[in-house]
Structures are given as structure tokens and as C-alpha cells.
Amino acid sequence: MQKREEHMSSVLIKNESRLGLKLVAPAVGIIGLLVIYPILFNIYLSFFDVQLNGTKTFVGMENYTDLLGNPRYYHSIGVSVIYLIGTVIGTTVLGLAAAILMNQEFRFRNLARGLILLPYFAPVISVVFGWQFIFDPVNGIYNHVVVDVLHLTDTRENLIGNPDSALFVVIVFDIWKHFPIAYLLFLAKLQSVPKDLYEAAAIDGQNAWGRFWHVTLPELRFVIATVVLLRIIWNLNRFEDVYLLAPNVETLPIFTYYQAFAGIVDQGVAAAISVIQLLVLVGLIWLYVRKVLKW
Fold first, then answer.
1. Transmembrane region positions (predicted)?
2. What are the respective helix, strand and coil percentages of the chain, to the nearest 5?
3. Phi-psi region of 210 (alpha: psi -120 to 50; beta: other; left: phi over 0)
4. What global pTM score does this model have?
5. Between the N and C ends of the chain, which has fewer C-beta atoms within 10 Å?
């Protein structure tokens, strides 16, 4: 009798396993078609000299050696590092400050919480045109205020046209556009922090800064690590925001686009850039999974 029950149990487990495989098979197939195949094909292309007519000539590691000897590649890495540092720190700090403020009780708090989310949900193309108008050298609001109202300078500056200042504009735009997602993550965690901890810290003589340092930050440590790593991963691939606002800011994705589709087209080198960038992203994702999620 016991053996029969064990046999029935093993048959049931096998049937459930088969059903599970059948249910996930369509999703696995779609992921393989839309994600895994393009990655493998991109790795394949990185070893070829690819012509626009579709012909390919095997060149081995030549694309990688050419890339590592290209000064523009290292310049794009430097621009990307500055972009990542500025945007990650900016969105984290601004998101944390907004979350702490929105966690306090005041009139119209729910309305303010909703308004903070508007930049994140606004269409990128719409807000980009708005920002381009703000910094327009002729009719822009920025130059009008700086030159005509405050008289800080006599020269109207084309901040977006100059690659150096355009990088600063792109960083500020990204912080403004994407800090709401950091704000939401921080606010969700802050609302779960027991108020008893703050009361105990106040009894121990901690002022507002002390309560923030000894209670808030330790409670937010996991969320801060999550926000920082996810923002690095997302912004390392950020293309549309930068290209639409200031295509002269040559981050790695913009440099890859120019190699693949503009000027002297070299899709083999572009594929090599993507492969190197993929390896960096895989390392960052591994770090996030092992050190933050602790899987």
C-alpha cells in the first residue's frame, strides 16, 4: 500500500513537472527569439567585417583591436563615466530627499506625491522638445533670465550645442526625468520603518540629523544599493534621452550608434562595442544578484 502511494506521488510530481514545462515553454521561446538570438548573432557579427550590402568577411579579433586603438572609444567611455556618476548620485540624492519630505504630514501631500511622478511618466519626445526650447540660444528661457533679467553675462550661450555644457544639461535632464522611480522605492521603504525607532533615537538625545544617520540610512541601505546598481545598469544603456536632447554627447550607446549607422559605417566594430558592454552589464547584474539580492 505504501509503495503504491509513493508510486502515485512520483507520477503526480512528474505530471506537474511536465505541465510546468509546457506552460513556460512559450515564454522561454519568446525570450530566446527576442533576446538570446540577437545576443548570439551580435557576438557572431563582432568577428566579421560587415558591409551594407550584407556581405561579411571574417576578420577574427581585428574589430576588437581596432576598437581598443580608437581614441573616440576611450573618449566615449570617459563621457559615459561622468554621465553615470552625475545621474546616479543626482537621482539617488534627489529621490531620497523627496521621499523624506513626502513622508511627512502636511496639507495636499497626496497631490504633491502625484505631481512628483509627472516627469517620469511624461513622453520623452515631448519633454525633450521642452528642454531644447528652454536652452535655445535665441528665444530660450535660460538665456533670457541669465542675460536679460539677471545680467550675469552679455553673451547668449548655446549650452546644448557645446558638447561640454551639453553633457551637464543631459545629466540634469536625466536626474529630473528619472528621480521619481528612486523616490517611489525610498518612500515605500520609509513607510515601513517603525516609528518606535525614531522615538527611541529622540529619547537618546538624537536630533533630526542623528535620527537620519542612525535610523533612516541603516533602514534604507538595501534600497539605496538597489537604486544605485539599477541606475548604473539602466543608464549604461541609455540612448533615447541623450540622443534626442543632445546627440553631440557621445556616450557609449551614442558612439555605438554612430559606428553602426552614421558616417563611415562599421557594424562589425559596433557589434564588438556591444559585446564588451554586454560583459560589463553581466558583471553588474551578477553583482546586484549576489550582493544586493543575496541569491
1. 21-45, 73-102, 114-134, 166-188, 220-237, 257-289
2. 75, 0, 20
3. alpha
4. 0.84
5. N
